[in-house]
C-alpha cells in the first residue's frame, strides 16, 4: 500500500492528465463527452489496474502508462457502445479493433470510426493505441505472452459486441457464443464466462509477467489460466452486483440477474471467490494476488451503491461474513479513499 500511495496513484493521475488534455480538444462533441465522462466516472479502473505496477516498481515507467492507456481505451469504448448512437455490431467490432491493435506493437493504425456518424476525435484514440504499442514494445518477455493477451482482448471485444447490440438479440448471440467455449469451462455458467471476458485484470497480469526477463511460454500459459476465468469472473460479477439497480433503470444487461435466487447468487460468487484464491496459490507471489482478490471484494462491497439496494446489501453482508483481516483492511481503506476523493 505504501508503493501504491507513493508511486502508483500519483503516476496514474499524471497519465490520465495527459490523456485528458487531448480529450478536451476532441472536435466532435459526442466523442469528447464520452471520452471525458469515461475518465471522470471510471478513473478507479485505472487506479486499480495500476496496482499491478507495484509488484515491479523498476518497470513502472512501462507498466503504468500501458495499463492506463489500455484501460482508458476500454472505458471510452464502453461508454461509446453503452450510450451509443449506433446498434451496429460491425461498428462495435471495428471500434474494438483498436484494442487488438493496441496490444500488437506492429499493427498499423486504422479508421476505427469508419462505421459510425461521429468520426473526428482529433487523434485521441490513435494516441491511446500508439501509447500502448510504444510501451508494450519495452516489455522484455512480451513475445511469450502476446498470444494470451490477444485471446483475452479478443474475448473482451466479442462480449462488448454481443452485449450492446439490439436488446432482443443480446441473449441469443451471447448463448451461441458460449456454445463455442463451454467445453473449455465445464464448471461455469454461461453468464459467469461472459462476465470473466469483461475483465482487463488478466491482461494486466500478463503485462506484469512480461515485465520480467526470461518468462517462458509455459509460464505465460499457466498465468493466463490462473487468472482466467475465476479472478476475472469475480472482478466483473462484483461490478455487476452493485450495478443491478442502475442497469435495470437503463435497460442494460446484467449478468447477476441470471441466477434464479439470491441464495444461488451468493453460492456461486462464494465458489468463484474460493476458486480464485486457490488458483493464485500457484503463482510465485501468491500473497500479492490474494491481496488483489480481497481488495476487489472490499472495493466493490464498500461502494455507496450497496447501501441503496436492500438485496445487494444482503448479498454483501453474506459475502463479507467471516472476512479475513486483509479484506477488512481494504474495506476500511476503500471507504477512506472515497471520502478523500469526495
Task: Kindly list the characteristics that best describe this protein.
single chain, 342 residues, mainly alpha, globular
Description:
With 342 residues, the chain is an all-alpha fold. The protein has helices at 2-23, 29-41, 43-50, 60-82, 89-102, 124-136, 142-164, 167-181, 190-197, 201-210, 217-227, 230-242, 244-250, 262-280, 286-301, 304-307, 310-320, 325-341.
Q: How are the SSEs placed, and which strands pair?
A:
Elements: H1 2-23, H2 29-41, H3 43-50, H4 60-82, H5 89-102, H6 124-136, H7 142-164, H8 167-181, H9 190-197, H10 201-210, H11 217-227, H12 230-242, H13 244-250, H14 262-280, H15 286-301, H16 304-307, H17 310-320, H18 325-341
Helix pairs in contact: 1-3, 1-4, 2-4, 3-4, 4-5, 4-6, 5-6, 5-7, 7-8, 7-10, 7-11, 9-12, 10-11, 12-14, 12-15, 14-15, 14-17, 15-18
Order of helices and strands: HHHHHHHHHHHHHHHHHH
Strand content: under 5%
| Percent helix range | over 70%
By helix and strand content, what is the structural category?
A: mainly alpha
Our count of helices gives 18
**Low-pLDDT runs:** none
Give the averaged pLDDT, no decimals. Answer: 92
User: What is the terminal-to-terminal distance?
Assistant: 20 Å
Number of strands: 0
Radius of gyration: 19 Å
Main sheet overview:
none
Outline: globular
Brief summary of the model shown:
By secondary structure, the chain is mainly α.
Amino acid at each position: 500500500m505504501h508503493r501504491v500511495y507513493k508511486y502508483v496513484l500519483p503516476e496514474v493521475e499524471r497519465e490520465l492528465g495527459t490523456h485528458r488534455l487531448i480529450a478536451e480538444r476532441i472536435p466532435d462533441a459526442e466523442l469528447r463527452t464520452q471520452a471525458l465522462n469515461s475518465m471522470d466516472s471510471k478513473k478507479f479502473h485505472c487506479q486499480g489496474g495500476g496496482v499491478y505496477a507495484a509488484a515491479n516498481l523498476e518497470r513502472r515507467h512501462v507498466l503504468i502508462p500501458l495499463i492506463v492507456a489500455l484501460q482508458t481505451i476500454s472505458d471510452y469504448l464502453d461508454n461509446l457502445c453503452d450510450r451509443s448512437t449506433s446498434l451496429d455490431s460491425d461498428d462495435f467490432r471495428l471500434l474494438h479493433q483498436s484494442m487488438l491493435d493496441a496490444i500488437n506493437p506492429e499493427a498499423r493504425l486504422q479508421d476505427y470510426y469508419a462505421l459510425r456518424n461521429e468520426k473526428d476525435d482529433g487523434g485521441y484514440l490513435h494516441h491511446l493505441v500508439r501509447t500502448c504499442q510504444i510501451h508494450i514494445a519495452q516489455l522484455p518477455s512480451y513475445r511469450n505472452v502476446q498470444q494470451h493477451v490477444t485471446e483475452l482482448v479478443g474475448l473482451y471485444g466479442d462480449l462488448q459486441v454481443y452485449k450492446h447490440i439490439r436488446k432482443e438479440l443480446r441473449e441469443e448471440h451471447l448463448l451461441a457464443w458460449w456454445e463455442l467455449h463451454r467445453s473449455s469451462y465445464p464448471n461455469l455458467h454461461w453468464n459467469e464466462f461472459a462476465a470473466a471476458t469483461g475483465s482487463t485484470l488478466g491482461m494486466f497480469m500478463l503485462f506484469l509477467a512480461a515485465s520480467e526477463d526470461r518468462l517462458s511460454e509455459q509460464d505465460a500459459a499457466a498465468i493466463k489460466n490462473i487468472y482466467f476465468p475465476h479472478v476475472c469472473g469475480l472482478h466483473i460479477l462484483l461490478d455487476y452486483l452493485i450495478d443491478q439497480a442502475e442497469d435495470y433503470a437503463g435497460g442494460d444487461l446484467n449478468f447477476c440477474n441470471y441466477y434464479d435466487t439470491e441464495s444461488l447468487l451468493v453460492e456461486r460468487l462464494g465458489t468463484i471467490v474460493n476458486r480464485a484464491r486457490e488458483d493464485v496459490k500457484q503463482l510465485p507471489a501468491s500473497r500479492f494476488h490474494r491481496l488483489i482478490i480481497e481488495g476487489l471484494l472490499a472495493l466493490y462491497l464498500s461502494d455507496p451503491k450497496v447501501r441503496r439496494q436492500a438485496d445487494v446489501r444482503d448479498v454483501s453482508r453474506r459475502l463479507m461474513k467471516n472476512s479475513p483481516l486483509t479484506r477488512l483492511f481494504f474495506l476500511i481503506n476503500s471507504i477512506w479513499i472515497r471520502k478523500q476523493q469526495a
